[in-house]
Amino acid sequence: MSEVGGAVAVEDGERRRQRTLEEALEVQSLRRIISAYLNYPEAAEEDVRRYERSFRKLSPAHKALLPHYPMKFQKLRSCIATNSYFIFNMLQAFEPPLDMSQDMDCCDDLHHEHASGHHCLSEQRNSCCSPAPGSGANYCSRPEEACHGEGSHMHKMSTGEPISEETTIGGSHDCPVDNGRSGVNDGATLQQEPDAPESNGDANAPNDWLDPSIQLHVPLVDVDKVRCIIRNIVRDWAAEGQKERDECYKPILEELDSQFPHRSKERAPACLVPGAGLGRLALEISRLGFMSQGNEFSYYMMICSSFILNHAETVGDWTIYPWIHSNCNSLSDSDQLRPVPIPDIHPASAGITEGFSMCGGDFVEVYSDASQEGYWDAVVTCFFIDTAHNIVEYIEIISKILKDGGVWINLGPLLYHFADMYGQEDEMSVELSLEDVKRIAIHYGFEFEKEKTIETTYTTNPRSMMQNHYSAAFWTARKRLKATTDERQPTIP
């Protein structure tokens, strides 16, 4: 074998080893996320036991003032059982894109070798659970091609047909900071609870990868992310979330409608929705007559959105109890324990446009692909651009993937997710003011046509005594026909 041939063989072998190790690490990360879902009932039950311990410490006279409390605790357990039943059915319907049975021993080497080179499961979301960013295990994201090409990692949904569940690549970015609390015990399992309503669908026999004997020990912060997802379900798929959707999604939909007045479903404009979460905004854009693609990095989100989009048979097919996880700021027990039916629409019968899809993967890695350049007529970002390590890179990519004359519609605050990453000194976080964000956008060829501020909330309990409000920036910016996208710094007055 020639020296050149030998070098090529060594390089190919190293590349195969690298890909094998990265896939193993991705399996490990996915297993951690699944374990967080599976550990939800035990973590929630521990909360109830804590409430009971506090109640027992009361004096007899004080207990006599709260005779309904023991019954409330039992009602909480019934609500937890219903949530757990929904989660269990969701996990059973999930088809992992990776071989979950493969040996994980090789992951330790990769963890140490690449700990600083891959995205973390940094999962704080704008006011979803905590105003401070968090962290988790390392996570690989390695999509081979852009999502509209061959080898895509996406879910597709055609009118009247379920999304075909293929490959979902991604981590997650939508949860609270790890506060150092102890983890959930190994082997805590999600069971079909006897109190769960039997009308919530049929549960098949558990998949092998749901075997409790192979579940990971996870910190309680991971289970907090599951609670966070339950609240996100309300925002996107419940009638109770309509107010937030009207505040955030309606202005975007109205702007898209006015920007493309002569569209037709036969030649539908292509619209990308990065940070699509549970998929409702992307679906509403599809219903409006666009070829819509949602992009999401979080496996927590993708598992749930796939289940709702694919497996909801009717309006109100499921019931969840999203507000039971905190006794704080409740107006009444009935408010805290109120059921929320989901979904409020039937996705498969919603009148979507051909080509609707959900693509899993890191926005930068997926849409930096050359095949994406100049592909999209519109990009919609809602509570997304502050998820960046480097917001300048986000803006540059948005400019590159838009057609000349294409529009970028944005709504959201600038609560940078990787700010104040205590204990992770090498974590990159570029935190620009709104003024600087706009200057960078102008540098990359955008002209701002409309700007305003929209007051809104994010996954907030509408009946809570505490409401976190955002004065979110809303704009429509158009990519100039001959955009200047060189690396010169913008002129700062």
Descriptive account of the structure:
- 36% of the residues lie in helices and 14% in strands.
- The chain contains 13 helices and eleven strands.
- The protein has helices at 3-38, 40-56, 60-64, 69-93, 107-114, 220-237, 242-259, 280-287, 299-311, 333-336, 363-367, 391-401, 434-443; strands spanning 154-157, 164-165, 270-274, 291-296, 318-320, 340-342, 356-360, 376-382, 402-412, 446-456, 470-479.
- The chain is globular.
- Residues 106-206 and 483-493 have low confidence and may be disordered.
For the structure shown, list the relevant keywords.
S-adenosyl-L-methionine, carnosine N-methyltransferase, carnosine N-methyltransferase activity, alpha/beta, globular, single chain, 493 residues, transferase, EC 2.1.1.22, 13 helices, 14% strand
Task: Describe the secondary-structure layout.
Blueprint: H1 3-38, H2 40-56, H3 60-64, H4 69-93, H5 107-114, E1 154-157, E2 164-165, H6 220-237, H7 242-259, E3 270-274, H8 280-287, E4 291-296, H9 299-311, E5 318-320, H10 333-336, E6 340-342, E7 356-360, H11 363-367, E8 376-382, H12 391-401, E9 402-412, H13 434-443, E10 446-456, E11 470-479
Parallel strand pairs: 3-4, 3-8, 4-7, 8-9
Antiparallel strand pairs: 1-2, 1-7, 5-6, 9-11, 10-11
Helix pairs in contact: 1-5, 1-6, 2-4
Protein name: carnosine N-methyltransferase
Region (Disordered): 150-208
Family: Belongs to the carnosine N-methyltransferase family.
